[in-house]
Design goal:
By secondary structure, this protein is mainly α. It has helices spanning about 1-35, 45-65, 70-120, 125-140, 150-190, 205-215, 225-265, 285-300, 310-325, 330-345, 375-395, 420-430, 445-450, 475-485, and strands spanning about 275-280, 350-355, 365, 410, 435-440, 455-460, 465-475. A three-stranded antiparallel sheet has the order 1-2-3. Strands 4-5 form a two-stranded parallel ribbon. The longest helix has about 55 residues, at about 70-120.
Length: about 475
């Protein structure tokens, strides 16, 4: 077995050597086959050719180094070859330039024919247009050189510039037309009767022009001076009187409050303190704006001004206020409430009560409302304000016992829920103001008012059908009350 394996290995090695030799022989065969393509050995003898080239090159170098004339001729030959190449390039360029020039000439001749035909046609536009276009050309194109070749481009630029200008003018005309129509509409709203059959459109402009001519024919401008005179002497003066009346009423309120404060200063609201009423300007925007508008109507108006725009401005200011007083269309109710509000001078004040020390007049507490106060404090403050209001209403004078003025006050359901202390305070206050009181109160509250009344009246309704009244002096009432108690 081992000998067989050894023998097989030797055979394998031998086969490999034979295959290698076969490959070498195949390559040699292929080379020999290719030799059949060459018919002469000289075709394969490159060594002889290379040797000949080397010999000739060496001979050339030898000749060049041995002869200056040959070197000069060789240099001149190179220069002439370069010059010849450059001349050929220039020749080609000139030929191309000539071709382009010939094409331009051909195009120019064709364009000349077209322009001549255009010039031979009858003129469709006035010659003045050409003068205008020539003037506009400088504005549109600025400084420029005009040539045959640039005509088309300049024409396009000129057309674009003109179109942009035309578009801008169209837009301006449209805006102006809209403004004119708006003005016509406003005029129609102001003078509806005169313009009932006139449209608010550009097409109806001649009708508005006719109305303007009629106004000029009526010599309306002649009345402008008279209008200003009447505006100053009548309308604005009446506005000034109205403003003065409101100012007097405001001052009257201040005087009344001063008068009431003199009375309140005599009343001890608390031990060592008294109440003082205060009236401050209201911060209400509508009222403040109205007062500013009134002042604007009269500022400088009575001294006079020859400026027509000034007079018209004053007229418009007065007109605006009067229109709101009358009630504008669609806003009648709103303007009515506004008129009531701004013309009532009481709305121009914010009223408050200040509790002050008698010693130095410094403020102890400020009452802008009764929020945060106890029931008794609220009643006490309410009685104080009520007494002040009655004093204002009747124009009472402090301590005027002999006054014959009528100061009758009815207080219904009096002191039904309040404390006895606050009720006594109110009655003392009414007594100090010397009011004539009729107090309607339940029977259980009679003891509160006894020290402050001169007589009582008992009302009795039996079975809810017939009411009966019995009048008693306070002394008679107290006697019957004492007898009933025993």
């Amino acid at each position: 077995q081992r000998q067989l394996e050894t023998h097989l290995g030797e055979l394998g090695a031998r086969i490999a050597r034979l295959q290698t030799e076969q490959g070498v022989l195949n390559e040699q065969r292929d080379v020999l086959v290719k030799l059949d393509e060459y018919r002469d050995f000289r075709e394969l003898d490159w060594h002889s050719v290379a040797a000949e080239v080397a010999r000739l090159d060496a001979e050339k170098r030898q000749l060049e180094s041995a002869s200056d004339l040959l070197r000069q001729l060789t240099g001149q030959l190179g220069e002439l070859a370069a010059l010849l190449a450059m001349t050929e390039v220039q020749l080609e360029e000139k030929q191309n330039e000539r071709a382009r020039t010939e094409q331009k000439q051909e195009d120019a001749r064709a364009l000349r024919v077209q322009i001549q035909a255009l010039l031979n046609e009858p003129a469709t536009a006035p010659a003045t247009h050409f003068t205008t276009l020539d003037e506009l050309r400088t504005e549109a194109l600025g400084e420029h050189h005009l040539s045959v070749e640039s005509c088309d481009n300049r024409e396009r630029e000129m057309r674009e510039w003109l179109q942009a200008r035309i578009d801008a003018e169209d837009k301006r005309i449209k805006t102006l037309g809209e403004k004119i129509v708006r003005t016509m509409t406003e005029y129609k709203e102001t003078y509806r009767l005169e313009t009932a059959e006139v449209d608010a459109s550009i097409a109806a402009a001649f009708e508005y022009r006719t109305m303007l001519t009629a106004l000029a024919a009526d010599d309306l401008p002649r009345f402008e001076a008279r209008f200003k005179e009447l505006l100053n002497e009548n309308t604005i003066r009446e506005v000034a009187n109205f403003q003065s009346q409101l100012a007097r009423e405001r001052e009257q309120i201040k005087e009344r409050i001063t008068f009431i404060n003199e009375s309140l200063a005599q009343i001890d609201y608390n031990s060592g303190r008294y109440i003082r009423l205060e009236a401050r300007p209201s911060p209400d925007v509508e009222i403040r704006d109205f007062q500013s508008e009134l002042r604007a109507c009269t500022e400088g108006a009575l001294t006079g001004s020859e400026d027509a725009q000034y007079s018209e401005a004053k007229f418009l200011q007065v007109k605006h206020i009067i229109e709101r007083f009358r009630g504008r269309e669609g806003q009648t109710e709103l303007d009515r409430r506004w008129t009531t509000k701004v013309t009532d001078v009481r709305n121009g004040f914010m009223f408050a009560a200040s509790e002050r020390w008698r010693e130095d007049g410094s403020e102890h507490e400020h009452y802008s409302d009764s929020g945060g106060k106890s029931g008794g404090q609220k009643e006490k403050l309410a009685y104080t304000i009520l007494a002040a209001s009655l004093a204002y209403q009747f124009g009472l004078e402090w301590g005027a016992v002999r006054s014959r003025s009528f100061r009758f006050v009815v207080i219904d359901e009096a002191f039904g829920r309040g404390s006895d202390e606050s009720a006594h305070y109110g009655l003392r206050l009414f007594a100090q103001l010397n009011l004539q009181l009729l107090i309607v109160t339940p029977l259980q509250k009679i003891h509160i008012i006894e020290p402050f009344v001169n007589s009582v009246g008992f009302v009795h309704n039996e079975d809810g059908r017939v009411s009966r009244l019995r009048n008693l002096s306070i002394e008679e009432y107290q006697e019957e009350k004492a007898r009933a108690a025993t």
